[in-house]
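Objective 1.3, modelling of assemblies. Example input:
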Amino acid sequence: MPADERRQSLLDVSVRVFAQRGYERTSVAHICKAAGIGRGTFYEYFGSKHDLFRELLGEHARRLLERMEPFYRKGVLPLAGGSVQDLVAARFHEIFAHFREHRDIYNIFLREALAKNAATGDLFRLIQNQQIAVVADELRQAMAIGVIRKFPDATQLATFLLGGVMHVAFKYLIDESAEVDLDALAADVAAMALAALAPAR
Amino acid sequence: MPADERRQSLLDVSVRVFAQRGYERTSVAHICKAAGIGRGTFYEYFGSKHDLFRELLGEHARRLLERMEPFYRKGVLPLAGGSVQDLVAARFHEIFAHFREHRDIYNIFLREALAKNAATGDLFRLIQNQQIAVVADELRQAMAIGVIRKFPDATQLATFLLGGVMHVAFKYLIDESAEVDLDALAADVAAMALAALAPAR
Amino acid sequence: MPADERRQSLLDVSVRVFAQRGYERTSVAHICKAAGIGRGTFYEYFGSKHDLFRELLGEHARRLLERMEPFYRKGVLPLAGGSVQDLVAARFHEIFAHFREHRDIYNIFLREALAKNAATGDLFRLIQNQQIAVVADELRQAMAIGVIRKFPDATQLATFLLGGVMHVAFKYLIDESAEVDLDALAADVAAMALAALAPAR
Amino acid sequence: MPADERRQSLLDVSVRVFAQRGYERTSVAHICKAAGIGRGTFYEYFGSKHDLFRELLGEHARRLLERMEPFYRKGVLPLAGGSVQDLVAARFHEIFAHFREHRDIYNIFLREALAKNAATGDLFRLIQNQQIAVVADELRQAMAIGVIRKFPDATQLATFLLGGVMHVAFKYLIDESAEVDLDALAADVAAMALAALAPAR
DNA sequence: AATGAATGAGGATTCATTCAT
DNA sequence: AATGAATGAATCCTCATTCAT
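Predicted structure (tokens):
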């Protein structure tokens, strides 16, 4: 198999294995078995288990931010044609979908951030802060045009909101058994947030 | 040292060590050294490293719920004398304080829940759900007497709110360096939530 | 077995194994097998293979210098009663005996010094220089009282002489097969050096 | 690149790498990287890492002896026109120069001889003995014509002398940092040896 | 003539756990 | 009640070597 492919395959496979077993409990042998290669081959592509891990997180962090970017920037505000309702609903739907899709990597990230792996923690915080920043930015615009009520600290509000969303998502996503209609959930949470932010009539 | 004391000391010591290094990276030797005992002694008190861990989580879960219980139940609603503002402020302050105090055990819990340790995950979810349940209960009462706006699903709202609070708390508590005035933070977040929940004028 | 004993036994055993196979080609398993213990036990006593090695060299360096010290200082010069002949003969005999006894450790030392292990090389040079220093000191005294001819640089002469001795010793000691009458060899070399150093009649 | 050239380039490159890192710590990958070839290519030219090593030592041994040969045989004794002083001085200078030039290969040789690699050790001893033999031969001639004092065992004397020279050389050559005026050193050592060997006036 | 992908054997190290004292 | 000596299974990693292209 060409080097690029093999490398990618290792990255892909290891996300699953790490998410399933956690970094510590995952041995290089586990990954190699899952990838269908000999143990030695692993080290042709990555200097160490931890190197792979770092690269994996880095890569996903980049992808994550890239994918978030256009979504947050997608124009949106000031409102072109759609209603605030549609907007918020779309946003929450997207966030939930994202969660579902990247459940594994989120799990890994969170776990390592909690474990205070210096490098990983920094990366995690970077992502978090960027997400918060773009949402805060939007909220500021929304407040400016009076679509939502005015709050004194947009960043804190963004933190609060994202936390709420994540928590709801977590509760349903942390265990794979509880399969939920994410679309409905997104709609519900959006409605709720909308009500909370709605300007006084 | 009497057996009971020694046992308790081991539990106390291991919380710190586990929080610092994580379950996997903590060896029995680490715990024994921190507790100042020989490695053999450990097994006089606990059948295995994992046994100690289970017991530790169980014990803290019990304590946690016990301590939460009276606080949530403390009566509160319908409002005796204090304003809604005071109430919410008090609540958030308490939650933040709780975070700070039990940072270690929260960290352990969260990490293990994410690691999908069947037993630990269940415990974690139990705690989480109980917290959500009591908050949801209160919210329902508050809606009933019109102190806050009406929302269709109180449980989801509670989840959302607790998530928001936790997220703000996390952002500041995850790294020990960023020392923050928790009292001020609690006040800010309370104000924000209050505004969000306030009934239409 | 008591810890002290085991520790010492490991040090003793490993000298032989290292000398036989060289540091690199000696595995911890080799040492453990030679010492009759399990592989894990090794790490109860030494942090790593290299730690053991360092300690081993350090310990022998200390012993070596200690044992050399009184020998070189044994008074000797200015000549009490014995002749120069006796003195030099005794000295060379001792050096040869020392070689034979510590053949292994000399081998290890020299090899590592050549391998430019920073730490080991420094140790080796220290020993060498000390040996040279004491011999140079004696030579200076001997020149002063006219027992040997005068040379301009005592240190260089000492280096030269010790090198000569070591080289002869090496030639016979490097391979274990060639068993030689060391006493006779010492006497021969002593006579030779003596003739070389003898003052002009 | 033509096969012959590549082969030679591999030999040349590997001397440096082996001298720097030692045989054991040098991997085929190291050599290939230093030579700028793929790992597979190596085995087109040498059957194994050890094969290369053997060939390398053999080649250098041959060169070494060849270069020594004419020098030692260069006639010299009985004295044509020059003085004994000039002769000995020239000899020592040459030996020192040789050391400096072949520091790497000497290092490898010595290390392997000490490591008791059967094959390498034999080779090393062969070289050593040949050097000793030619010097002994010369000494015998010198004694015969009364240029130096008479010693009973010319071989042992040669061993002693070469050892002395090598030791002085070693002391300065073992670490690359201590840059020394080799010419001056050679002159000093020559004067010293000369004085030691000079016949009684 | 060249190579890079693949690998398994081997070596250092960690660690939960046992057991005799 | 305490312990420390002992261990083997498990894990990360290296590396000489093979082979299809």
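Residues 76-80 of chain B have pLDDT under 50 and may be disordered.
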